[in-house]
Structures are given as C-alpha cells and as structure tokens.
Amino acid sequence: FIKPYLTSGPVVLLTLLGNKAVERWRELIGPENSLGAREIASSSLRAIFGKDAIFNGFYGSSDLSAAEKQIELFFPTVKADKNHLTNTATMKNCTCCIIKPHAVQERAS
C-alpha cells in the first residue's frame, strides 16, 4: 500500500529545524485527504498539489517522537541534540529550494 506510493516517483526527504517544526509543517501541508483539504484548508500544499487521501503529495511526522525515529531511519548519521539544532545541509552538486509561506499563499489565490 505505502511502498507503491513512495516508489511511484521522485521523493525528497527533509529534516526541518525550528521551534515547533512538526506542528508548523503539518499546518502548512494541511489535512491528509487532499479532497477534504481543498474545502477546509484551500491554501495548504495538499489542497494545491495532492490528488486524494493516498496520493496527497506530502508527509509530515505525527509528533516529535515519530519525527526523531524517522530522522534516525532515513538519516542515520544525523544525531539530534534537543538543546542544540545543527544545520547539516551541504551545497555540493545539488539544488536548493526555499519555499516562503507567502509564495504558497499567493499560488492559492
């Protein structure tokens, strides 16, 4: 069920750092069902780019504990210190994409 979805196209994994990062990301991506998101959170990423409840385009950890486990799974060399946030990004043969919240809001308009 989840494997065909995750392997159906390119996947980008992110580790977001910041105050209440899990909650803020989940608010930005919106409800899991993209169809419902279009009605109750029309400017959310899932409302704009998702297809339905399965192919909703985005994932966010349910809480901080889940996020820590998933970071360890996908990025085993990254060690999180709860008192010190470390930026592990490297810019070498890659593309950096920064999405500002106002750009998402303007796209929805």
From TrEMBL:
GO terms for cellular component: axonemal microtubule. Keywords: Cytoplasm. SUPFAM superfamilies: Nucleoside diphosphate kinase, NDK (SSF54919). It comes from the Eukaryota. Residues 2-82 form the Nucleoside diphosphate kinase-like domain. Its main location: cytoplasm. Belongs to the NDK family. The keyword Metal-binding does not apply. This is Nucleoside diphosphate kinase-like domain-containing protein. It comes from Bracon brevicornis. It is found in: Cytoplasm. InterPro entries: NDK-like_dom, NDK-like_dom_sf.
